[in-house]
Write a sequence for this structure.
């Protein structure tokens, strides 16, 4: 795209034929296009709609454009309508077209057009920490690219992940560089791709976190530049999930790009030109509504081919390889490619052209995407472009000879060219590209379980963030000027958002990074969690906090309780729940009372893992997003605690015929678990509701990995290579059983040798008691202790049943949808290639029953034998492969891990109803905080009391995916926001604390349940009414940057007819605040609430007239002022109770009195 823009209208002098001639001649010579230029003269001074922003926004006279440029609509505008100078260039049109024809003859025979896309793959972590990478090369990438793009208008560059760019922008870039970046973005020569904070992994990340990191990056880009990415570049994740294209479509993307898929599948797709590009309908329920065009990179992937037939140096990497820890002072890097000169120019061109031609055979159009770059490239952009510029010139000058022309391009320019071909594309359904293998013995399924500790901490941090976001939102809506500083609170949330987003990187949560980088991720997560925990404490307790028990805990430690203590429990889900919580104390007796002074079911027992500690369990009942207080008193009859019953250790050498003779039943209202006293292993489980018994036993196995590359295939942090099935990891099992009123706990200890004193594995199985009709009744809750492992061991939990599943397992894509995984047989490595990621859930089933496993972190799962479900829990590996040793990627993980799994067993319809909700119940367990002493005076607490009394509840098929205050400063209206950006430093940049981001997700697939699979309609005004009075709602794209009514994604022709009407934006708008959410749909909104000063009646409406009188009676110290207020408030309260009227405004003194009432007695 060439755009001539100036502050004055064009005149013949300002834009002479000669200048146009020279510019077009230069552009064609450099291979910018193969198709004729078109001079577009529009009405009212609009000369064509560009696909990239004008050089000088708002002012232009002539846009010279050619088909195929760019990605977003922008306009150059000239003077007033009817200006006589508007047509000054029209007489020159024939001459310009003749010029083009003459100059383009050399390229007339060129059938292939290569789009050379400069990029640098910059891992946020992996081998080096973020700080090390910024110092060694990352900062130089942006500094040098900015400078070099400014030297030549042909040049392009794409920026993919935002973390490094944001660090550069905030701490390195000067004002002139920032100005250059904005200019390059306006010209469309610098393009942000994906736009998330990182390029997230697709196998082991959770849906919540994928959306978070994308939102964080998009918010920064839109807030800072007004840019909204529209294309993905997922070139390095190890396999491709079907949930990812759905999220990108919901975010407004027009095309998706993937690379790493199974080698055999890619070979097949390359042989058939129809297959590498397709339209992906990642969700079976959403279908074409959220489909997206998908490009699969060929076998060369995202790196430029490095082999040169005429040189022993790598090709096309003229800046060499980055050096750590410090860049070389002389600027000479290792492995710098041979500089381009007159002697090797033709050889370079021939090599490049041959690669382009080879790639062209694998795709349907004449347009070839040619990535130029690789890991850690373009830190010296000058030498890169100085060598590629003459190479492209030479190819274009010999276009007829080569049959190829080449141009620098952004990814958007490439996809635009493909889109304009208007071809009809095949449709891919909702199946994914997992697992990923690079060759028969290189199955990348090991990382599903690598660094289990990091995976667990990352998920806990995400859950804590989810709870804190909703709690802070409630606080701001209720008390916008409360005592907790908003800016301080938002920064705490942003710190944890950053850490959780960062660890979603495809070399982070995967466990494929070096030890020091893993430590960096953990440090960022724990620091962020500490800050958010401090925030939650301040929000939930107005009094000084003695100790925090943490978020979403099942087991927490604290100091000895010498007196009664208050415990605050917060439910982060928008459903009513009945469950139990667990805290660890140092006293053997305790009684727990709720906030109405009533005792609740309580159980205290010796801790399984801590000497002189006790586990305190007590039942809680909470509404959606509701907080309740419980008082724990260290009182109770001596010996009241639950007793531990110990059983004799049993050897695995027990003859099989002697097993199953002595079965010990343990039951609750939903299950009967039978334990074999001859083996101390589970024997069977009876579903009392469905009246079916399933034989079920659990034990631990280990795969023995090879660590010597000379002896055969190895396992490492990426790869799992099994030489046969797992073997038992124990010779004896010990057992303890702790029966109680809240739960019965089975403790099993697995010993490597019969005579070992220390156990190697432990399982703690909890069967909740007294929860008939509530969700915990259907849970068999298990936590594990695994490790430290021996070297080159990969530990698995084997659950073996008599279900006839044909070795087929179902696993989830990022917690969004399920995938059916039939067992497949391969010539080599069948065990490893039948492993799949489990992010939230997996199950096996037959015609009548389903066994569901839910997890608190990602694992690898498989069904290696009939009726079996195998979960890989932990890995410890070392090998002598030079590459792994050089980067310290051998995974010598000696940690002890404590993952949690819940099992559900029942009929298939019953498990369909429970599975999704229970997975979320495990992920978002109640937050438990210990606060001030209960013996002190209970002061008025305003907001805390209201959180206790008001519940936010959604229907059972809808989930509150997000409720947060993002804090971005941008305006919702795109035009107004762009106008703000033009003001530069003068624009308002304070966080917007009144804008609430709300996401609601439908949990069920079409046809999955006769009732819950139906679309659900709710009134946001009613659902959110317990937070505050809704003033307005506005539907947005997934990450919030698009008004949904302005989002018009590209349409791609497909071979399949539409099966249902695609809903249009205008069909979604609801003036009455009602919203319909269809199966598997995620809908995103900006919500604004009326400020408390604007809704006094709403405040009084929440208390009855009787409660109002009691509350106001507490103010005798106000004297006459209190009497006046009391009379007026009672009158308004009675009117409210009788009529439900709204809208009266208390202003002036009355408003001040209302605030005083609110602060003094908390009756708001």
């Amino acid at each position: 795209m060439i755009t001539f823009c100036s502050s004055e209208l064009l005149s013949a002098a300002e834009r002479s034929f000669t200048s146009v001639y020279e510019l077009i001649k230069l552009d064609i010579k450099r291979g910018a296009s193969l198709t004729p230029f078109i001079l577009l003269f529009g009405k009212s001074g609009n000369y064509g709609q560009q696909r990239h922003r004008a050089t000088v926004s708002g002012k232009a006279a002539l846009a010279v454009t050619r088909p195929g440029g760019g990605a977003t609509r922008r306009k150059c505008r000239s003077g007033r309508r009817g200006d006589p100078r508007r047509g000054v260039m029209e007489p020159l049109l024939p001459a310009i077209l003749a010029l083009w024809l003459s100059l383009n003859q050399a390229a007339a025979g060129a059938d292939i057009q290569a789009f050379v896309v400069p990029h640098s793959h910059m891992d946020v972590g992996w081998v080096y920490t973020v700080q090390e990478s910024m110092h060694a090369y990352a900062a130089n990438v942006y500094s040098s690219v900015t400078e070099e793009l400014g030297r030549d208008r042909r040049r392009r560059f794409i920026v993919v992940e935002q973390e490094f760019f944001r660090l550069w922008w905030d701490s390195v870039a000067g004002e002139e560089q920032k100005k250059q970046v904005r200019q390059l973005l306006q010209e469309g020569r610098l393009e942000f791709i994906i736009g998330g904070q990182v390029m997230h992994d697709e196998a082991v990340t959770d849906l919540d976190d994928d959306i978070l990191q994308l939102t964080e990056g998009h918010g920064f880009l839109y807030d800072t530049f007004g840019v909204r990415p529209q294309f993905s570049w997922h070139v390095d994740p190890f396999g491709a999930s079907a949930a990812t294209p759905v999220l990108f479509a919901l975010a407004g993307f027009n095309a998706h790009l993937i690379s790493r898929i199974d080698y055999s599948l890619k070979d097949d797709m390359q042989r058939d030109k129809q297959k590498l590009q397709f339209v992906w309908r990642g969700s079976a329920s959403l279908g074409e509504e959220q489909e997206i065009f998908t490009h699969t990179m060929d076998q060369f992937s995202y790196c430029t081919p490095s082999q040169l037939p005429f040189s022993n140096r790598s090709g096309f990497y003229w800046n060499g390889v980055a050096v750590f820890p410090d860049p070389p002072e002389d600027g000479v890097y290792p492995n710098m490619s041979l500089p381009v000169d007159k002697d090797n120019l033709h050889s370079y061109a021939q090599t490049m052209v041959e690669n382009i031609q080879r790639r062209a055979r694998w795709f349907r159009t004449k347009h070839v995407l040619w990535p130029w770059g690789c890991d850690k490239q373009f830190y010296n952009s000058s030498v890169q472009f100085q060598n590629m510029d003459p190479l492209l010139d030479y190819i274009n000058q010999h276009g007829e000879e080569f049959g190829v022309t080449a141009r620098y391009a952004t990814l958007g320019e490439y996809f635009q060219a493909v889109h304009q071909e208007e071809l009809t594309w095949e449709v891919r359904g909702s199946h994914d590209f997992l697992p990923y293998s690079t060759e028969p013995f290189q199955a990348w399924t090991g990382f599903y379980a690598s660094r289990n500790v990091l995976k667990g901490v990352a998920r806990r941090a995400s859950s804590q963030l989810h709870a804190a976001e909703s709690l802070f939102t409630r606080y701001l809506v209720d008390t916008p000027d409360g005592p907790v500083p908003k800016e301080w609170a938002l920064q705490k949330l942003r710190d944890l958002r950053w850490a959780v987003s960062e660890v979603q990187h495809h070399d982070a949560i995967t466990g494929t990074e070096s030890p020091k980088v893993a430590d960096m991720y953990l440090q960022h997560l724990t620091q962020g969690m500490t800050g958010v925990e401090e925030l939650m404490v301040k929000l939930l307790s107005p009094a000084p906090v003695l100790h925090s028990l943490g978020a979403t805990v099942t087991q927490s430690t604290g100091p000895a309780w010498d007196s009664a203590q208050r415990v605050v429990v917060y439910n982060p889900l928008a459903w009513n729940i009945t469950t139990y919580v667990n805290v660890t104390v140092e006293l053997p007796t305790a009684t727990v009372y709720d906030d109405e002074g009533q005792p609740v079911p309580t159980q205290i027992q010796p801790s399984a893992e801590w000497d002189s500690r006790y586990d305190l369990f007590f039942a809680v009942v909470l509404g959606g997003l509701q907080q309740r207080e419980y008082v724990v008193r260290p009182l109770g009859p001596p010996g009241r605690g639950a007793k531990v019953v110990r059983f004799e250790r049993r050897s695995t050498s027990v003859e099989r015929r002697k097993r199953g003779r002595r079965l010990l039943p343990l039951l609750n209202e939903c299950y009967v678990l039978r334990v074999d006293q001859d083996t101390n292993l589970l024997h069977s489980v009876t579903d009392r509701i469905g009246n079916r018994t399933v034989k079920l036993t659990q034990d631990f196995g280990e795969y023995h990995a090879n660590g010597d590359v000379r002896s055969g295939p190895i396992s490492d942090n990426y790869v799992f290579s099994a030489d046969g099935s797992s073997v038992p990891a124990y010779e004896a099992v010990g057992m303890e059983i702790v029966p109680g009123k809240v739960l019965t706990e089975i403790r099993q200890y697995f010993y490597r040798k019969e005579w070992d004193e220390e156990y190697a594995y432990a399982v703690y199985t909890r069967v909740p008691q007294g929860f008939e009709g509530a969700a915990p009744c259907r849970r068999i809750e298990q936590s594990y202790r695994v490790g430290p492992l021996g070297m080159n061991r990969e530990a698995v939990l084997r659950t073996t049943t008599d279900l006839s599943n044909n070795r087929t397992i179902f696993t989830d894509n990022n917690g969004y949808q399920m995938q059916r995984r039939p067992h497949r047989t391969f010539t080599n490595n069948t065990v490893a290639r039948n492993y799949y990621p489990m992010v939230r859930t997996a199950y096996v089933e037959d015609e009548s029953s389903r066994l569901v496993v839910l997890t608190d972190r990602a694992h690898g799962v498989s069904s290696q034998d009939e009726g079996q479900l195998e979960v890989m829990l932990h890995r410890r590996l070392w090998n002598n492969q030079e590459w792994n040793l050089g980067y310290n990627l051998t995974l010598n993980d000696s940690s002890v891990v404590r993952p949690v799994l819940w099992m559900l067993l029942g009929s298939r319809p019953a498990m369909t109803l429970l599975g999704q909700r229970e997975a979320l119940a495990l992920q978002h367990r109640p937050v438990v905080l210990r606060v001030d002493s209960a013996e002190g005076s209970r002061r008025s607490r305003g907001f805390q009391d209201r959180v206790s009394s008001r519940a936010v509840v959604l229907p059972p098929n809808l989930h509150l995916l997000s409720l947060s205050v993002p804090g971005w400063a941008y305006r919702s209206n795109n035009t107004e926001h762009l106008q703000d950006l033009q003001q530069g430093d003068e624009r308002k940049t304070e966080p917007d604390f009144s804008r609430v981001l709300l996401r609601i997700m439908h949990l069920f697939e079409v046809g999955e349940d006769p009732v819950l699979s139906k679309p659900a309609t709710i009134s946001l005004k009613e659902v959110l009414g317990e937070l505050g009075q809704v003033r307005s709602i506005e539907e947005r794209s997934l990450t919030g940057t698009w008004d949904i009514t302005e989002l018009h994604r590209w349409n791609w022709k497909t071979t399949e007819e539409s099966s249902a009407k695609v809903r249009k934006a205008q069909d979604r708008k609801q003036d009455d605040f009602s919203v319909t959410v269809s199966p598997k749909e995620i809908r995103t909104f900006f919500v604004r609430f009326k400020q408390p000063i604007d809704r006094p009646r709403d405040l009084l409406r929440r208390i009855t007239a009787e409660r109002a009188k009691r509350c106001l009676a507490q103010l005798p110290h106000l004297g006459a002022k209190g009497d006046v207020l009391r009379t007026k408030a009672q009158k308004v309260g009675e009117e409210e109770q009788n009529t439900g009227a709204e809208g009266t405004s208390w202003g002036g003194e009355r408003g001040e009195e209302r605030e005083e009432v609110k602060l003094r007695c908390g009756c708001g």
